[in-house]
Description:
Blueprint: H1 2-9, H2 14-33, H3 38-57, E1 64-66, E2 71-73, H4 75-101, H5 107-125, H6 129-147, H7 154-185, H8 190-196, H9 203-219, H10 229-235, H11 238-263, H12 268-289, H13 296-317, H14 320-344, E3 348-349, E4 352-353, H15 363-366, H16 368-382, H17 388-402, H18 406-432, H19 444-459, H20 465-476
Antiparallel strand pairs: 1-2, 3-4
Helix pairs in contact: 2-3, 2-5, 3-4, 3-5, 4-5, 4-11, 4-14, 4-20, 5-6, 5-11, 6-7, 6-11, 7-9, 7-10, 9-11, 9-12, 10-11, 10-13, 11-13, 11-14, 12-13, 12-18, 13-14, 13-17, 13-18, 14-16, 14-17, 14-19, 14-20, 16-18, 16-19, 17-18
Amino acid sequence: MNNLTSLQSLQPVLPEIALAVGAMVLLMLAVFAGDRAARFVNTLCILLLIGVGALIVMQPAGRVTMFDNGFVVDDFARFLKLLALAGSAGSLILSLDYLTREGLQKAEFGVLVLLATLGMLLLISANDLIALYLGLELMSLPLYVIASSNRDNAKSTEAGLKYFVLGALSSGMLLYGASLIYGFTGTVNFAGIAKAVQGGAGTGLIFGLVFLFAGFCFKISAVPFHMWTPDVYEGAPTPVTAFFAAAPKVAGIAIFVRASVVAFPGITHSWQQIVVFVSIASMALGAFAAIGQTNIKRLMAYSSIGHMGFALVGLAAGTAEGVQGVLIYMTIYVGMTLGTFAVILSMRRDGRMVENISDLSGMSRTHPTMAFMLAMLLFSLAGVPPLAGFFGKFYVFLAAINAGLYTLAVIGVLSSVVGAFYYLSIVKVMYFDAPAPAFQRTPALVGLMMVVFGTLNIVFFLYPAPLLGAATAAAKSLF
């Protein structure tokens, strides 16, 4: 009976346990079977991620805390865990054919993605500074490895080294901030910190908050801690870039929102100023720095920086409506990103990948379906109605306006207009320039992902209610 009770008490962490055990089993399979079973192991990794998602869906509603209130499962956590799992599974699906063609199919690749995803799930549910740091490091360490997974490529190894060095620096800053917060509040628990700062915060605590946010900004590649993003996106293998652009950003935004709203509600005005600055700087840099890019992966890096700025507009509002906007934005962002990278992974000519925007010349005549899907995804990234990306921006800007942040909303709209320039320039290359030689046949799974995410992006406006309802419930669970 006691054993049964113990098992039932672990039910809230069952998805994490299943993912950890599954990753260890698949690691043993990878070790004994070797690279000849790599595709099989990576396929099992995708199925495991789907299974863990099903376990999260089956969890009962409500809020549960565990491990001395250091781990929390609520609607907010469940929503973002499912989104992180979707980003990881989508990236692995996109990687299967690419890794085989490039001779990079390693049995441990999928396992590293699983371990990084486990870190993301722990980070999303972190409810104190220690759990936050453990989740962050468990997520980061596998990412350093897979960034440099193409060991024979100088750009890939350089990307991994840059990410590791700057990641270590950001972790140190985050840990220093956490120690300052603990020193001035006497607790690491978010609820305890919230109680300690009810009457306001001193200079020391604000310093701690700044260092903590610096660590968060690095993980979501927000200005001024974005410097690793373009080089890592360009140097890492393309499916790894897709993974970096999708899943870790979800976990980073999740802990950014939870720590701000749950641990520091009494000093909202103080952290709001930091978030507003980071948001404006990220939107502006993402809009202007991408204009001169010729490599589409570097362009997507600057695009990602800009989109994190837009997502933070919702957090800057500091309201349940703002958090709802962040959740809607991140969901749509992950879909747009995976769809766009499905097209980038289809850019193969003469047996090798091409990455320059000029390689898309005249694609409307050589690959009309692919050109149409990419055009719709780019219009959506630019925020053109009635595509899904428009609704993401609409909800974060609406929350900012309702919170009185008119300047932030206006700058966001202007940044969207500037950003639309470089998205539309790619559409111009595809539809109006002379055709370049055709790409090779798109792998079936990649083509399916492209069509699925492209179509969802187009038809989202017909039935947005499920996402809006889930995001509203998840946002309310924090307040």
